Recover the amino acids of this structure.
């Protein structure tokens, strides 16, 4: 079975479960997260560490792409996907959205290989809207996503959660833990957020006077923020590039999380009921991060700071406001892994 597209965190949970049931999974993904990045992506590292064969699919995307060299990757991605599918001979494809899914699912359809896809955001991405015409089923994370897809194809499953996240939920209470200072976990996802990172770097001496800062910078070599963070020697500041175990520990300990508003982090924050400050990426398609963030605002868990206004003063004000929020965990599905495996085995075997 081929897995491809989207963030790998939740899809890897499903891949592990399928392997335990006797499936052989191969992966079409990104070895490098960004154009010009020389570091191996977190996706590549974690997938290959799991013993899954990884193929670097050099596909391109249409959305807001103006570089001719990047546009050349669009037809090349289809050629490569077609050859890889002939080479690996899968019986099924499981897509997790994103532009890598487009050539894989379309070429699979041409070769008679059935597919399903999973929608992680509260809206519908361009890739999933396109391939929804060809897949057998669309699994969605949020109830609001059901309205974007045909009723005979869309199934609410939730987002597959790492076992560590489920353990956090079991241990959590609604009482604040007793620490000398508020603990802030700052994260921009696996690639990191250069915008968020720079605000933290420029104001670290003031921030550590107020808070305990745990900072996940990402590992991209384009900005090399991880190196800049490692040069900071300040009591009350802990940093790492990307590490799943450290990220889960930081999430568990945080009083407030400062983050982008990607699909995975917003689902986990909503599921856990964590108070947060969200800085949505303004240029993503369908303004999906704004809508992801709004789900948590509605639940009384989040304060939104627009990227253009994000700085020291707005950060501190938002953190203090988030600390006063009284929202509770959102009632989201926690058994998505089981539901998606049932869907896969009923539709694709």
């Amino acid at each position: 079975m081929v897995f491809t597209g989207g963030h790998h965190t939740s899809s890897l949970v499903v891949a592990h479960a399928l392997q335990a049931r006797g499936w052989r999974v191969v992966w079409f993904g990104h070895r490098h997260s960004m154009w010009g990045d020389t570091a191996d992506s977190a996706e590549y590292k974690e997938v290959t560490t799991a013993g899954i064969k990884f193929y670097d699919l050099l596909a391109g995307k249409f959305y807001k792409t103006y570089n001719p060299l990047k546009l050349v990757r669009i037809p090349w991605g289809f050629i490569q996907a077609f050859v890889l599918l002939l080479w690996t001979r899968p019986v099924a494809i499981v897509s997790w959205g994103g532009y890598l899914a487009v050539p894989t699912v379309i070429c699979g359809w041409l070769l008679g290989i059935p597919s399903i896809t999973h929608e992680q955001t509260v809206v519908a991405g361009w890739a999933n809207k396109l391939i929804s015409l060809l897949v057998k089923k669309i699994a969605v994370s949020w109830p609001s996503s059901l309205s974007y897809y045909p009723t005979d194809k869309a199934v609410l499953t939730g987002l597959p959660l790492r076992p560590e996240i489920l353990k956090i939920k079991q241990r959590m209470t609604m009482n604040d833990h007793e620490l000398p200072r508020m603990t802030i976990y700052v994260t921009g996802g696996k690639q990191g957020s250069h915008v968020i990172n720079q605000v933290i770097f420029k104001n670290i001496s003031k921030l550590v006077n107020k808070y305990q800062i745990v900072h996940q910078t990402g590992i991209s070599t384009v900005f090399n923020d991880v190196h800049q963070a490692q040069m900071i020697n300040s009591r009350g500041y802990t940093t790492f590039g990307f590490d799943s175990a450290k990220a889960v520990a930081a999430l568990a300990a945080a009083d407030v999380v400062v983050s982008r508003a990607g699909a995975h982090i917003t689902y986990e924050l909503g599921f856990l009921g964590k108070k947060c400050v969200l800085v949505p990426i303004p240029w993503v398609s369908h303004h999906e991060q704004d809508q992801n963030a709004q789900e948590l605002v509605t639940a009384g868990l989040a304060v939104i700071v627009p990227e253009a206004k994000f700085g020291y003063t707005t950060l501190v004000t938002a953190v203090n406001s988030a600390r006063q929020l009284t929202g509770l965990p959102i009632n989201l599905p926690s058994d998505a892994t089981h539901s998606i495996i049932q869907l896969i085995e009923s539709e694709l075997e």
Remarks:
- The first strand starts at residue 2 and ends at 4.
- The mean pLDDT is 90.
- The chain has two domains: 2-161+334-347, 164-323.
- The domain at 164-323 is CATH 3.40.50.2000 (Rossmann fold).
